[in-house]
TrEMBL record:
Its cofactor is FAD. The keyword Oxidoreductase applies. This is FAD-dependent oxidoreductase. InterPro entries: FAD-bd_FR_type, FNR_nucleotide-bd, MRET, Riboflavin_synthase-like_b-brl. PROSITE patterns: FAD_FR. Residues 1-107 form the FAD-binding FR-type domain. Keywords: 2Fe-2S, FAD, Flavoprotein, Iron, Iron-sulfur, Metal-binding, Oxidoreductase. It comes from the Bacteria.
Length: 233
């Protein structure tokens, strides 16, 4: 396993609780839109076994063409050990990256695509949307529905409806509005549905989509195949 050590270039306060850490791109580090990576803090590999409390699975919120690796995450008032240590880091400090993988790549098929996200989960979709708007894709329409109870909606500069690009974006601030809209969108029996959020959010949306007659092959989540099966059981 190759470990890439890299420095923090910039720390952006996206909202009261959400930050984006912009990291320098190590040589030979490549990824595709929608990819995730393991982010580790100093000390994680100093013992006989890796300290898993200093490692987290994170989505990359940027494209390679942006020449930096974006990690967008929520840090609450009482954070985990990992988030507390991450919050103490400053520009110039080092972090480690390894195990790059993607489970939510946009398929080039002539169908409508729906993105369902909760909170900071929308960061996974940011590079996919950016790539779609820049380069297009063989899909009919891209629709993003995101819920954020704080109303501090992320990436609003990008997630704006563009009729000429067949892109629609919608933000809601409560579960009632969200599931009312999600149920309406799920009436499209031919669409492809991508879901990113907490495990409970994934399970609730998968159950809703299956009740609407959407097949498992039409539903995509940011989980490897073995883990994916647990959500569809």
């Amino acid at each position: 396993m190759e470990i890439y050590w890299t420095k923090i270039k910039e720390i952006i306060d996206e909202s009261k609780e959400v930050k984006t850490y912009q990291l320098a791109c190590p040589i030979d580090f490549t990824w595709e839109a929608g990819a995730h990576v393991h982010l580790a803090l100093k000390g994680f590999n100093e013992g006989a076994k890796p300290n898993r409390q200093l490692v987290r699975h994170m989505s990359i919120s940027t494209l390679p063409s942006e020449n930096q690796i974006g990690i967008t995450t929520r840090i609450k008032e009482q954070p985990s050990l990992f988030k507390a240590n991450l919050n103490q880091l400053r520009v110039g400090d080092e972090v480690a990256l390894f195990k790059i993988h993607s489970n939510v790549s946009l398929l080039n098929k002539n169908q409508k695509v729906y993105f369902f996200s909760s909170g900071v989960g929308i960061a996974t979709f940011r590079p996919i949307v950016l790539d779609y708007l820049r380069n297009g894709a063989a899909i009919k329409n891209l629709y993003s529905l995101s819920i954020e109870s704080s109303r501090e909606f992320l990436f609003q500069d990008l997630f704006q409806s563009q009729a000429t690009k067949n892109f629609q974006a919608e933000f809601v601030d409560n579960r009632t509005k969200y599931y009312q809209r999600a149920n309406e969108l799920a009436l499209d029996q031919t669409g492809h549905y991508y879901i990113v959020g907490s495990d409970d959010f994934l399970k609730e949306n998968i159950a809703m989509l299956k009740e609407k007659g959407i097949s498992e092959e039409q539903i995509f989540i940011d989980k490897r195949e073995q883990k994916r099966q647990e959500f569809f059981a």
